[in-house]
């Protein structure tokens, strides 16, 4: 106990994780060596995680949940790990991305900004820096957000990529993000995207007016077993829905949206003009 380091759980999510781990360990009267033996880790590793000098991993967190009996509970270390790992993401979004990675078809509708899966790194950075400037995230969180987006985009390059159908409101291509050069490169990226064999890109022009069925972004996934998943966001959280009764009406409305939107050829022409 001579070299015991006091922990401030409020200083960071990692520190809160370490303090939680120490609290449960000491409640059982275990030393760091005792816990390390039960987990298969060294006492040095236990000490480093407790004092936030080393970040926890998912396997480590899962073993802690087994040893402390916290799996599936509000005190779950795996839950804390996910909060650390996805700290800049809305609740529900990591679950959605798990489905997205397996989807055979992805349908997106976006308003105001280019959908994340189609963003260039420079465009994504411009958006993230805007959030840093407003104080809603830290520079480190901005870096994590852009890195996480790159991981999502990698799903499009897998050996059997999903069919990706995107309808963008006209505002997505007219709203300047990051300056002229960033925007020009982003629009070129959209033109290249439309040329891929597994994609459809359409623009919903302003003049469709009230015939546009959605006033919020829409994410619809078709999974390999042909079941469907929808994802919607408010300002503070996201929600994944697998209930057919609520997902299928969104699919119907999406088809109606596509009927009102410009054809892909006309959409590409509008993007090139922009």
User: If classified by CATH, what would the architecture of the largest domain be?
Assistant: 2-Layer Sandwich
Strand line-up in the sheet with most strands:
3-2-1-4-5-6
Assembly type: single chain
**Relative strand content:** 5-15%
Radius of gyration: 23 Å
CATH class of the largest domain: Alpha Beta
Structure description:
Helices cover 49% and strands 12% of the residues. It is an alpha/beta fold. It folds into two domains: 73 residues, lambda repressor-like DNA-binding domains (434 Repressor (Amino-terminal Domain), Orthogonal Bundle), CATH 1.10.260; 181 residues, Endonuclease, Chain A (2-Layer Sandwich). Strands 3-2-1-4-5-6 form a six-stranded mixed β-sheet, with helices on both faces. A hairpin with a 4-residue loop joins strand 5 and strand 6. The longest helix is centred in the last third of the chain and has 17 residues. The radius of gyration is 23 Å and the shape is elongated.
């Amino acid at each position: 106990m001579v070299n015991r380091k006091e922990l401030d759980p409020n200083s960071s999510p990692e520190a809160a994780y370490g303090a939680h781990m120490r609290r449960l360990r000491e409640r059982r009267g275990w030393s760091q060596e005792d816990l390390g033996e039960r987990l298969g880790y060294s006492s040095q590793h236990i000490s480093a995680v407790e004092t936030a000098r080393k970040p926890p991993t998912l396997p480590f967190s899962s073993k802690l949940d087994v040893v402390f009996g916290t799996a599936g509970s509000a005190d779950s270390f795996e839950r804390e790990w996910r909060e650390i790992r996805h700290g800049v993401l809305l609740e529900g979004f990591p679950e959605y991305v798990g489905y997205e990675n397996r989807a055979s078809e992805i349908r997106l509708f976006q308003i105001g900004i280019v959908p994340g899966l189609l963003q260039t790194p420079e465009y994504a950075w411009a958006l993230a820096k805007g959030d840093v400037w407003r104080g809603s995230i830290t520079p480190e969180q901005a870096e994590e957000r852009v890195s996480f987006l790159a991981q999502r985009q990698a799903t499009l390059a897998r050996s059997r990529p999903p069919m990706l159908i995107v309808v963008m409101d006209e505002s997505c291509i007219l709203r300047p993000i990051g300056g002229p050069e960033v925007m020009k490169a982003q629009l070129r990226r959209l033109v290249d995207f439309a040329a891929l064999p597994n994609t459809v890109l359409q623009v919903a022009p302003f003049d469709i007016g009230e015939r546009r069925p959605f006033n919020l972004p829409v994410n619809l996934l078709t999974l390999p077993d042909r079941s469907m998943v929808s994802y919607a966001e408010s300002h503070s959280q996201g929600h994944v829905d697998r209930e057919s009764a609520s997902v299928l009406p969104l699919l119907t409305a999406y088809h109606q949206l596509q009927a009102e939107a410009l054809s892909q050829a006309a959409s590409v022409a509008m993007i090139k003009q922009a």
